[in-house]
Amino acid sequence: MQLTILQNPEGRYNVAEKYPVNLQKDEKVVRLLRRHPARLILDILLTVIIEILVLVVLFWLRDTVEFLGLLWNILIGIALVGGLLFIGIEFYRYRNDVWLLTNQRIVDSTRTSPFNQTVSSADLVNVQDMNFHKRGVLATLFNFGDVTCQTASHTQHFTFRGVSRPEEVLHLVDTHRDQARNRLHNPESSGSEVVA
């Protein structure tokens, strides 16, 4: 895990950001991506709605079938704890599932728990096909969607899920992929990059 200080467009320094990988020589972070906050809120709202429905059914069953009174109270407690745990997991994944776009590669880091992390990376020069999808009214209203990057390997693809402004992310990956290919084929012109 590498700690780096970022400078925002106004010239102020942000709090140090942790990256899921160590940066290579001459590698610079272009953008750190997370799911759009609206995606997190929608997942939490769906969990709350399901939790309310489960609790209504359990309370109704508790009042209808009285001979299992203590069991119903235990089930209600389990349902409450389970719902809160699911909301906590969603927030944890929101904070810890990141995609990193650098001037050399894309990195996908997924953490489902503090004890389980998967990190994949691919060089930008190996990215072949890219597309983005916005599905549904809410994704269109809040401008979030998925960006998929297919690499030279037939089995490996990277999907930036639920990211803000997917068309901008696609353009950014495309621009830096072209710059990386240009540096690979013309090493002497690597100092004249265009920053998007």
Summarize the structure.
The protein is α+β, with helices and mostly antiparallel strands. It is built from four helices and nine strands, in the order βββααββββαββα.
From the structure above, extract its key features.
PH-domain like, elongated, 9 strands, about 200 residues, 4 helices, 2 domains, three-stranded antiparallel beta sheet, four-stranded antiparallel beta sheet, disordered N terminus, alpha+beta
Task: Give an account of the 3D structure.
There is one protein chain. The protein is of the alpha+beta class. The chain folds into two domains: 2-35 and 97-189, PH-domain like (Roll), CATH 2.30.29; 41-92. The protein has helices at residues 37-64, 69-96, 137-142, 166-185; strands at 2-4, 17-19, 29-33, 98-102, 105-113, 116-123, 127-133, 144-151, 157-164. It has a four-stranded antiparallel β-sheet with strand order 3-4-5-6. Strands 7-8-9 form a three-stranded antiparallel β-sheet. It is elongated and about 80 Å long. The relative contact order is 0.13.
What is the approximate shape? elongated
Order of strands across the main sheet: 3-4-5-6
> Can you write the helix and strand succession as a string?
EEEHHEEEEHEEH
* Low-pLDDT sequence parts: 1-16
Question: What topology emerges from the helices and strands here?
Answer:
Blueprint (H helix, E strand, L loop, with lengths): L1 E3 L12 E3 L9 E5 L3 H28 L4 H28 L1 E5 L2 E9 L2 E8 L3 E7 L3 H6 L1 E8 L5 E8 L1 H20 L11
Antiparallel strand pairs: 1-2, 3-4, 4-5, 5-6, 7-8, 8-9
